[in-house]
Amino acid sequence: MTLRQRLPNMRSTLGPFLAFRTELGLLSIAALDLMLSILRPDLADLASRPLDVGHEFLKSYDFIVVGAGSAGAVVASRLSEINSWNVLLLEAGPDEPIFTDVPGLGGGSARSNIDWQVRTEADLGYCRSSQGGRCYFPQGKVLGGTSVLNGMLYIRGNRRDYDQWAADGNEGWSYDDVLPYFLKSEDMRVEKYKSSSYHATGGLLPVEEMRFNSPVTDELFKAAEELGYPEIDVNGESQTGFFRFYGTLRNGFRCSTSKAFLRPARNRKNLHVSMRSTVLKVLIDGETKRVVGVVFDKDGRRYVVKATQEVILSAGAFRSPHLLLLSGVGPREQLDHFGIPVVSDLPVGKNLQDHISLGALIFLLEDPISTILTRVNVFSALTQLLFSNKGPLMSNGAVEISGFVHSRYANASENWPDLALYFKSVTENNDGGAFLRVLEGLSDEVFADLVEPILLKDAFGIFPCILHPYSRGEVSLRSSNPRDPPIIRPNYFSDPRDLAVAVDGVRLAMLLSETKIMKAHGARLNPNKIRGCAHFEYPSDEYWACAAREITMSAWHFAGTAKMGPSYDPEAVVDPRLRVYGVRGLRVVDSSIMPIIVSGNTNAPAIMIAEKAADMIKEDKLDFQNIFS
Question: Which segments constitute the Glucose-methanol-choline oxidoreductase N-terminal domain (predicted)?
Fold first, then answer.
């Protein structure tokens, strides 16, 4: 009997609904939102939510910020601290629903109205076992952006990442330069880290540990110790070792950048937030090369609003370059092809980077120490959630502990790990096919071969993630119509060195599963093969290299498509102050500007970039001595 026959209603409810295979059947997200709003008014937080400006726009603003995600919400909030500046923040999506506060329900947002539902072009080099052969990337279309959908991990990256940025000509972006901006945002609530010089308290962004961890995570920590890896603070002095996840949480619940930075600014009369507002183009005067304003649609009506100082693109590594290209900033050949007048001939959309490897790496267990959906008592879980901020819904499930380690191809003496091992207590099989399959976009055929035979069995997963990818992708125009999504070609594994590191990551994952502590729990590799790789010996390096191309797993850490660099860098789109070359009054402030992707999750670095950018804009536009005198 197939999964479809056993769970006939499951597929139709994934995405906008939470699928629990329990005696309650299917609990809709709408019902959960209503329950939370009644029983947890602190989560609903109606009195603090940003107000939509409606249709009463000013004719012009000093600053227009495009995108209210991990970076945009921050930069808009910080700029509006200057009372004499009027700031307009444009967001294509709505306000965040209440249920997204619950850490365990992050996957419920995928393929919903708050997800851009990005898909790549089909390519035989990767994502071959995804639906239609196309990678699927959930991306937030909502106040708070992808900080509403992500795994909430607060990881800054490695000192060497930022020092390399500075060494490549980006003055002011060394680790010592950026650390104060991480500290500016942070409100560290984990007791053992509060006194660390690498952390700070009192910032707008709360950082906490998860309120629930599956028993298997403790055993995996012991397995790492057995292999000689130390426990570390991943944002401390050393990034080599294993660590328990802490993240952007407030009282155990998700804290997006909208909650952290926009809600405290709600009553500022100089900050207008406009939701359901899709920017179509940045208006740039072709003669003066000066930004004029933006064109956007809202509720079926089109608006033109002017910017007297700057337009700031914070729409992410896909949307920011797309808007630049539509506005005449990009490679001349591409713009000429679509009849778009060239304002500045720049390599926009190039240099796309991401942290990737292979998904669905599952290890079965004999002992009941993992999280299986059918073992979750929904009444108990909801009661703990609603009344004590505890229980299995207070864990993101996908990543509870992680390890940053060196592959055989890296120099371990440099303390610059090139592999991350993310451990999942909720896997593609023990969630009943309800969540991870949707997030990863696995095809029916592959899911049937690889996962159905072990459905709802105890297991854990390991996602070995490449931290220093060599492969580079591209974002380009599909047409001159802003409603047409851009063409996204990540070009995963186009550099064979990435494939070698991915395979080595599987080797390390298998070593952890073969430790004494994990063998005592009956840990063993999933015996089922991916059909596209079944002709290779299993397991072997050749098989895993094939598997990486079949089930290509992205960490959704997209970066680099509007590269920051000095004027002599032919690949640079913005200068070290994030100003777009050749255009006055236009900046990019998000992960697009990363010259080289950081060694870790990108949410915290995007917030740092926005904090630093806001200060740079203030420095450029104001005399600080007069402001604070």
Answer: 140-163, 316-330
569-573, Cβ contacts within 8 angstroms, sequence gap of 24 or more: 569/168, 569/169, 570/347, 571/347, 571/350, 571/351, 572/346, 572/347, 573/324, 573/329, 573/346, 573/347, 573/348
- Sorted by sequence, the CB contacts under 8 Å of residue 619 that are 6+ apart come out as none
Residue 459's beta-bridge partner residues?
364
Question: Do you know the residue count of the chain?
Answer: 629
SS3 category, 75: helix
Name the binding residues. Answer: 142, 146, 279, 556-557
Please give the Cα distance from 251 to 389 (Å, whole number). 7
Alpha carbon 278 to its chain's center: 21
Q: Looking at the predicted structure, is the pLDDT value of residue 17 above 50?
A: no
pLDDT of residue 28: 64
* CA dihedral sign, ordered 107, 113, 118, 122: positive
Residues 6+ away with beta carbon under 8 Å from 496: none
What confidence score (pLDDT) does residue 317 get?
98
Told to judge if 557 belongs to the known catalytic residues of this protein, a careful annotator would answer: yes
Is 0.85 topped by the overall pTM?
Answer: yes
Q: What is the pLDDT of residue 25?
A: 34
CB 392 within 8 Å of CB 398: no
* Rounded mean pLDDT, 392-415: 90
Catalytic site residue from 199, 322, 355, 557: 557
- Annotated binding-site residue numbers for FAD: 142, 146, 279, 556-557
